[in-house]
Amino acid sequence: MSFLELKNITKRYGPLTAVGDVSLSVEKGEFVSLLGPSGCGKTTTLQMIAGFVEPSAGTIRLDGRDITRAKANSRGLGIVFQSYALFPHMTVFDNVSFGLEMQRVARGERKPRVEEALSLVHLSPYAKRYPRELSGGQRQRVALARALVIRPPVLLLDEPLSNLDAKLREAMQFELREIQRKVGTTTVMVTHDQAEAFSISDRVVVMEAGRITQIDQPYRIYEHPETEFISRFVGKTNLLPGKVVTATGAGATVSLAGIAVPVETADLSVGETVTLCIRPEKLHLTAPSSGLLTGRVADRFFLGSQWLYHIDGPVGTLMVVTPNDGSTPAEQGAPVGLEWSPSVVRVHRGAMAEAPDVALEVTG
Amino acid sequence: MSAALPETAPAAPGDETPERRFPTAPLFLSGPAALLFAALVLTPLFLTALLSFNQFDYATGRTGGFTLEHYLSVVTDEYYLEIFLRTFRISALATAICVVIGVPEAYILSRMTNPWRSIFLLVILAPLLVSVVVRAFGWSMLLGPEGPVNGALIALGIGRMKLLYTEGTVVVALVHVMLPFMVIPVWTSLQKLDPAVEQAALSFGASRATAIVRVVAPQILPGILSGSLIVFGLSASAFAIPGLLGGRRLKMVATVVYDQYLSDLNWPMGAAVAVILLAANLIIMLTYHRMVEGHYRRRLG
Ligand SMILES: Nc1ncnc2c1ncn2[C@@H]1O[C@H](COP(=O)(O)OP(=O)(O)OP(=O)(O)O)[C@@H](O)[C@H]1O
Ligand SMILES: [Mg+2]
């Protein structure tokens, strides 16, 4: 039986269903991330686990115990709040020490543990400051240290690294992962940043409008998104509307604006409307008229380790990402060919939905 | 917002350069209020202070000249000393009781959800809509020898008690009148708290009581401080409550000033007592303010 288990959790605010019928099992020592657009119910889900929001329906079990209606101060979880929620009238040291005090840790033992936690988040010199004398990122690290120092069995992190610079964020991700490996802390983290979710989680939970749409390992979410929404929300993707023209037991052929494209999806029927998803890095540039289709470079962007091209072709504008191997990139306006292997094409049934109104994030 | 823009936009670029406009703008903006304050508050205060140094002739009732005798007689007379001590004792007690009742009241109010919160806020503010004099009469009817409280005491076999014209009654009535002035500032500072901060304390296993004492109370201290200052200041200079419920013998400073002005017609003496009350009030409040706020300035800003 899993360590932390949500069963059909629902939270309604009047007519609005903030979280609907969410079920999730987290194993002991597992690192799970909740990923989804703003307002999809990630914080609400976390707050229900923490005991600050009462579920309208469903049960939450922790280590076999039903905690659905248990008081928040009896759950023993370590929490980093989205708004940090530091104690403004206490110094950084006292903030971090508060949880240990509540656990009745002896004064002599508290000091080294607080100092250790502060050095973990690179804040040792700031121990005597008050929260209002810190920058946003420093406050966020105090919140993290405050949650880590009590060594809780379960850590709930609500966007714990959102305010840190890229370097510090990477260091903190590494630390989180280390602690979680060493101590075996079960961690549930909310994040907007899919690169972060992918790099440190064992499993990623994708949420959309209060519901879970996919729970899977990071690479599977990326390579096998179950819905068109996920393929758009997670990373960049090219969505191509088409019609099935031939179908066999082993695969099918889809016509994209008159161009026949082979796919490996088996159970399609002839005449069906489908949407093909191809990740930009799976498309390769070739010499003109030698690939599956030919287009022209409309735009190109230098991303450091990669080039991002917009290629105008018969099926619309396609995004292509190629590694920057040091060779001369294709010129703007130059004709190019595009090819890809049939195994990288994901097929979603039905016509393309309207573009989601969420801001898509660029992943490197 | 956007509809208002075209109207305000042309007014914004003034004919003055920013450097020239900068020093005069605050002067212009605060000028009217400063003038009003000077005319309505400082002038009478100044005249009262001047009056307190005038000599008073009992035979003719004339005032004039310069003397310190009123101050000397107030400072040396046991009678006045007792009245001053009583005034500050009663005010301090009323303030303390207002803190004890008002702070939890404000906390409970802040935890209510909306229909109830509005209703109870109205209930707390409603007494302010009724004149203090009317409320004082209400208390004197309630507590009088033939009032319902004594009626109940007699019915219970305890017997009639003297409730009116005691210090206790004055304190109770002051608390009743001053409570909104404590609840409102505390409630305002509670509104500014991030509820997640209290939740954070709970998440670390703190009991609700610990969370309130260690986390909530220190943050609303500025609100408690300003509430205390308002309540203490208003209590120390209260007139209607001690006048109607303290009777002839249980006097407070404001009633003595009234007596000096209107019974003895010794205006300079009344003015001297008033000036001393003002000074004592200021000293007590400033000391208290420094003591409490100095402690918290760096933390809460
Ligand atoms: N107390 C509340 N009353 C009413 N609606 C609420 C309340 N709290 C949250 N909601 C609504 O529930 C939905 C989910 O909110 P939630 O805070 O869980 O989003 P989120 O996924 O954490 O978003 P973000 O990434 O922006 O933090 C939102 O539409 C929000 O408006
Ligand atoms: Mg959130």
TrEMBL record, chain A:
Keyword Nucleotide-binding listed: yes
Gene3D superfamilies named in the record: 2.40.50.100, Nucleic acid-binding proteins, P-loop containing nucleotide triphosphate hydrolases
Annotated ABC transporter domain residues: 4-234
Keywords of the record: ATP-binding, Nucleotide-binding, Transport
One annotated GO molecular function: ATP binding
Keyword ATP-binding listed: yes
Superkingdom classification of source: Bacteria
Protein name listed in UniProt: ABC transporter ATP-binding protein
Organism encoding this protein: Azospirillum endophyticum
Automatic annotation (TrEMBL), chain B:
Topological category with respect to the lipid bilayer: Multi-pass membrane protein
Transmembrane intervals: 33-53, 88-107, 119-142, 163-187, 224-245, 265-288
Chief subcellular location: membrane
Cellular compartment(s): Cell membrane
Family annotation (SUPFAM superfamilies): MetI-like
Superkingdom classification of source: Bacteria
Keywords: Cell membrane, Membrane, Transmembrane, Transmembrane helix, Transport
Domain ABC transmembrane type-1: 84-288
Alphabetized InterPro entries for the sequence: MetI-like (IPR000515), MetI-like_sf (IPR035906)
Protein family: Belongs to the binding-protein-dependent transport system permease family. CysTW subfamily.
Name the record gives this protein: ABC transporter permease
Organism: Azospirillum endophyticum
